[in-house]
Write a structure and sequence with these properties.
alpha+beta, 3 helices, 2 strands, 17% strand, 81 residues, single chain
Length: 81
Protein backbone atom coordinates (compact mmCIF):
# COMPACT_ATOMS: atom_id res chain seq x y z
CA UNK A 1 0.00 0.00 0.00
CA UNK A 2 1.32 3.44 -0.84
CA UNK A 3 1.78 6.30 1.60
CA UNK A 4 -1.46 7.76 0.22
CA UNK A 5 -3.35 4.51 0.90
CA UNK A 6 -3.48 3.43 -2.72
CA UNK A 7 -3.46 -0.28 -3.55
CA UNK A 8 -2.29 -1.85 -6.82
CA UNK A 9 -4.42 -4.65 -8.22
CA UNK A 10 -2.10 -7.07 -10.04
CA UNK A 11 -2.38 -7.05 -13.84
CA UNK A 12 -3.43 -10.70 -14.00
CA UNK A 13 -6.32 -10.07 -11.62
CA UNK A 14 -7.38 -6.93 -13.51
CA UNK A 15 -7.33 -8.88 -16.76
CA UNK A 16 -9.23 -11.87 -15.32
CA UNK A 17 -11.94 -9.59 -13.88
CA UNK A 18 -11.87 -7.30 -16.92
CA UNK A 19 -11.25 -4.26 -14.72
CA UNK A 20 -10.67 -1.02 -16.56
CA UNK A 21 -9.44 2.41 -15.47
CA UNK A 22 -12.31 4.41 -13.95
CA UNK A 23 -14.20 1.27 -12.89
CA UNK A 24 -15.78 1.89 -9.50
CA UNK A 25 -15.08 -0.43 -6.61
CA UNK A 26 -16.65 -0.59 -3.20
CA UNK A 27 -14.35 -1.67 -0.36
CA UNK A 28 -15.51 -3.58 2.72
CA UNK A 29 -13.27 -4.15 5.71
CA UNK A 30 -13.73 -6.41 8.70
CA UNK A 31 -10.97 -7.27 11.17
CA UNK A 32 -8.00 -8.30 8.95
CA UNK A 33 -10.01 -8.88 5.74
CA UNK A 34 -10.58 -6.47 2.85
CA UNK A 35 -13.07 -7.22 0.07
CA UNK A 36 -13.30 -5.14 -3.10
CA UNK A 37 -16.29 -5.40 -5.44
CA UNK A 38 -16.87 -3.69 -8.74
CA UNK A 39 -20.09 -1.72 -8.86
CA UNK A 40 -21.91 -0.50 -11.90
CA UNK A 41 -23.61 2.89 -11.86
CA UNK A 42 -26.96 1.45 -13.02
CA UNK A 43 -26.71 -1.11 -10.18
CA UNK A 44 -26.18 1.74 -7.74
CA UNK A 45 -29.14 3.68 -9.16
CA UNK A 46 -31.36 0.59 -8.87
CA UNK A 47 -30.28 0.15 -5.25
CA UNK A 48 -31.13 3.77 -4.39
CA UNK A 49 -34.48 3.46 -6.19
CA UNK A 50 -35.29 0.34 -4.15
CA UNK A 51 -34.36 2.17 -0.92
CA UNK A 52 -36.66 5.05 -1.92
CA UNK A 53 -39.49 2.60 -2.61
CA UNK A 54 -39.05 0.98 0.79
CA UNK A 55 -39.14 4.41 2.45
CA UNK A 56 -42.28 5.46 0.56
CA UNK A 57 -44.01 2.19 1.45
CA UNK A 58 -43.08 2.65 5.10
CA UNK A 59 -44.38 6.23 5.04
CA UNK A 60 -47.65 5.05 3.44
CA UNK A 61 -48.19 2.39 6.12
CA UNK A 62 -46.99 4.19 9.24
CA UNK A 63 -46.67 7.88 8.38
CA UNK A 64 -43.50 9.90 7.93
CA UNK A 65 -40.71 9.55 10.46
CA UNK A 66 -40.19 12.53 12.74
CA UNK A 67 -36.74 14.04 13.18
CA UNK A 68 -36.78 12.75 16.76
CA UNK A 69 -37.42 9.16 15.57
CA UNK A 70 -34.60 9.46 13.04
CA UNK A 71 -32.19 10.80 15.68
CA UNK A 72 -33.12 7.99 18.09
CA UNK A 73 -32.57 5.35 15.40
CA UNK A 74 -29.16 6.79 14.50
CA UNK A 75 -28.12 6.68 18.16
CA UNK A 76 -29.38 3.08 18.46
CA UNK A 77 -27.46 1.93 15.39
CA UNK A 78 -24.28 3.75 16.42
CA UNK A 79 -24.36 2.05 19.82
CA UNK A 80 -25.04 -1.38 18.33
CA UNK A 81 -28.40 -1.94 19.98
Amino acid sequence: MSVRGQVVIPKGVRRKLRLKPKDRLVVYGEEDTIIMKRIELPELKETFERIKQIGKERDRRKGRLTQKEIDEEVITVRHGH
